[in-house]
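HUMAN: Please help interpret these tokens:
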Amino acid sequence: MPTFTVRVTKDYTVFSAGHFITYEGGQCERLHGHNYRVAASLMGELTENGYVFDFVTLKNLLRSICDRLDHRMLLPRENPRLTIREQGASMVVQYQEKSYTFPREDVVLLPIPNTTAEKLGEWIGGELEAALQGRGASNLSRIEVEVEESTGQSASWQKEIPLK
């Protein structure tokens, strides 16, 4: 049975967000941000309608996920080098001697260890996969998400999805 691929990357599958990454050896990037671009590819068998998945629906799903991250501070909830706590209407982040305070409403706490493009792609991919499963997309065999931090600098995540 042949497989086919659909891919979407649009001007509105983007988000602007702040972040920083911690490294082994006591290093921490300066707080900064990116204008991220996100693309998604779905591979699988054709449905009875003659497509892998509807482009309009895929674009809307991806846009919805990006909108949840747009104009937010992205914090990795599972980072062992950070202490993150709520303090009133704020989120306080501690890394060694550095301390950051952000308005709670401007923060997205992600269940990842670091806000790298790779881990953001994995999280976005998981959210997209859950949305696809909720729509009964049982013909899919693979999903791929690419997150571009800046022109020419991107990471991708792929996952095989068993056909049901």
About this structure: The chain is about 20% helix and 45% strand.
